[in-house]
Amino acid sequence: MYIETERIIIRNFKQKDAEGLLEYLSNPRVNCFAGDRLCSEEAAWAYMQYSPKDMLRYAVSLKKDDFIIGDVFALRENEDTYNVGWHFNKRFEGKGFACEAAAGLLDYLFREAGARRIYGFVEDDNIHSKRLCERLGMRREGCFKEFVTFVNNPDGSPKYEDTCVYAILEKEWNTIRQW
Question: Which molecular-function annotation in GO is an example for this chain (predicted)?
Answer without folding.
Answer: acyltransferase activity, transferring groups other than amino-acyl groups
